[in-house]
Amino acid sequence: MLRLTKKTEYALLALRSLARTTDELVTTKAIAQRYQIPEMLLAKVLQRLKKQGIVAATKGSGGGYRLARDLAALPLTDVLGLFDEHKTLVECQDEDGGHCQQSAHCDIKGPLEVLNAAVMEPLRRMSVRDLFVAQQREGQSPFAGLIN
After folding, report:
1. What fold, for 6-67?
2. Which of 145, 135, 136, 126 is nearest to 71 (CA)?
3. Checking CA distances to 54, which of 28, 47, 108, 142 falls within 20 to 30 Å?
C-alpha cells in the first residue's frame, strides 16, 4: 500500500549510517559501499538532506557528512515527503486537493479520510530514531506505542 521510493530508502540508509558514526564525517563513497548502492544517486539524496538541514557537509580532503538534526526530533514523515512520497492514501486528500475525476460523485470521501488518518497518524508521530530503534518483541509490533 505505502511503498517508499529508492531515494527514500537510500536517505534512511544514509541517516542510519550517520547515526552510527557520531564523532567523524562519513563520505558518500563509504555509505554507498557499506550498503552497495549507487554512489551518484546517494550523492543526490545526501544533497537533498543537506538542503533540508537534516545533514551537514564538509567539503575537501577529509570531508563528508554528519547529522545536523537529532533523529529523535525528526518526524519520519519529513523524510518520507522529501522524495515525492504521497502523504495521503488517495489523491483527493493531497494538500493540493488532487484532481480526482470522481469528486463530484464520490460518496466514500469521509470513510477514506478516516482510513487515511488511521494509517498516516502513527507515521507522523514516529521519529526517524523510533524507526531505527524499534525492536519487535514476541507478539508485539514495533509500532505498538504509536498506534494507541
Report:
1. Arc Repressor Mutant, subunit A (1.10.10)
2. 126
3. 142
